[in-house]
Design brief:
It contains 4 helices and 5 strands; from the N terminus they run E-H-H-E-E-E-H-E-H. Strand 4, helix 3 and strand 5 form a beta-alpha-beta unit.
Length: about 150
């Protein structure tokens, strides 16, 4: 069953649900507790400064039920930007109901309006087969790159 939601760019009054979603995601994926003050400042900073990126939220009856964050990466090879999709979270009661597809659709619409977006990237945990199938069903493919961090 597909749930129809309203998808929009996040505003300052969305900080609390976005912080909550980030905390829940960190715990679900890594059993990691995030510092509330740092996280609140980080979410607020992105919403306040569009050069950092933006969040999209999915609302059902004025309740935020899903979100994702977009940041950019300049590609000198393409003379354009990739949009990185990050911090994807859908409330458990709304998972597998097409919410992410609606968020992703809005990402693509916004990218078309920018004229300099050459593609979309995201990372997903190796074991998260459900998320991988969702991304593949929307036309994304696994890349040949591995991700390293320090």
């Amino acid at each position: 069953m597909v749930e129809t939601v309203k998808v929009r760019v996040a505003k300052h009054n969305d900080v609390a649900p976005l912080v909550k979603f980030n905390q829940l995601m960190a715990w679900e994926t890594e059993q990691k507790e995030l510092d509330m003050d740092t996280l609140t400042k980080g979410v607020s900073a992105l919403i306040s400064d569009e050069t950092k990126g933006f969040y999209l939220v999915a609302e059902k009856e004025q309740e935020v039920v899903g979100s994702l964050m977009v940041t950019t990466e300049w590609s000198d090879w393409r003379n354009a930007v990739f949009w990185w999709i990050q911090s994807v979270y859908i409330s458990p009661d709304y998972r597998r109901k097409g919410i992410y597809a609606q968020l992703y659709s809005q990402v693509k619409i916004l990218a078309e309006q920018q004229k300099d977006v050459c593609g979309f990237r995201l990372y997903v945990e190796k074991e998260n087969a459900i998320a991988q199938k969702t991304y593949e069903s929307l036309g994304m493919q696994a890349s040949h790159y591995l991700m390293y961090e320090e």
